[in-house]
Amino acid sequence: MVERLRRVAAFGLLSDERGRVLLARGGAGCPYPGVWQLPGGGVEHAEHPADAVVREFAEETGLTVAVGRLADAVADVATYPPDGVAVHTDRLIFEVEARGGRLRPEEAGGSDEVGWFSAEEAAARPLMPFTAELLGLPVSPLPADLPRALPSAPAGPSADRRVRFAAYGLVTDPDDRVLLTMIADGYPGAGLWHLPGGGTDHGEQPAAGLLRELVEEAGQLGRVVELLAVDSRHTPAALGPEGRPLDWHGIRVIYRVRVDVPTEAVVTELAGGSTARAGWFTRDQLADLSMTDVAVRATRRRVS
Length: 304
Description:
Blueprint: E1 3-13, E2 21-26, E3 36-37, E4 40-42, H1 49-61, E5 63-80, E6 85-101, E7 111-117, H2 119-123, H3 129-134, E8 161-172, E9 178-183, E10 193-194, E11 197-199, H4 206-218, E12 223-239, E13 245-258, E14 275-281, H5 283-286, H6 293-299
Parallel strand pairs: 1-6, 8-13
Antiparallel strand pairs: 1-4, 2-3, 2-7, 5-6, 8-9, 8-11, 9-10, 9-14, 12-13
């Protein structure tokens, strides 16, 4: 049986005045040595993905960067023989601006070369598929005989640590009503109104996972309009269905979603018991609801 693992990684998209993009080549100790990608890497436990980009950029390139908007959220699965481990990686890509430093490879060998590339120049190098797709280049599978090693796990004890990657939506209809779901008893935040969405499955893209959750939690068919932001929340002692406090790190991408033909919001059995109710609300009604922090922040956005 193939063992399944999940990790979250964050990357930075840095361009120069000539429109070239900064790429880093994986060193001998990387999961894919000799392959080029956007600078970045794994998010540590309790670390905000934007902070991970700043840290990884400094380590891999020697540059100090300021993180801008979230440009993309994608997922992929890679199998690592002979261990027979399938690693699902959720990748968050941010636009960044250089603020200082001197360009150089990572001293510890994480990246053995860094450089600026036009799209045409990058196309001549072996690229990680997510990097090729982001640059608008054809995506080619990496060679099957390419040496590879499992990504390193975060340091420290992890028996009671949990990382949950999820996708949520600021969901509206043509009348600008907002769809919310209530968290069921026995789950953190029970009784609060929350954004529709939830954890993505192994091998599932974030946007696809959100649209699946939208059907399960509220019986609605939606379309993703825009990627808005990423939310990171660390709860060192969250008590949930497990029956004991766990050290949770939740990373949640938030999309703007439109339901063009809304129906009565109905929770289905596929929601798994974590959702008690669902409903449509006018903007005026939102002020009287007890909502989660992420729902409060999202519903305050101006939606056109």
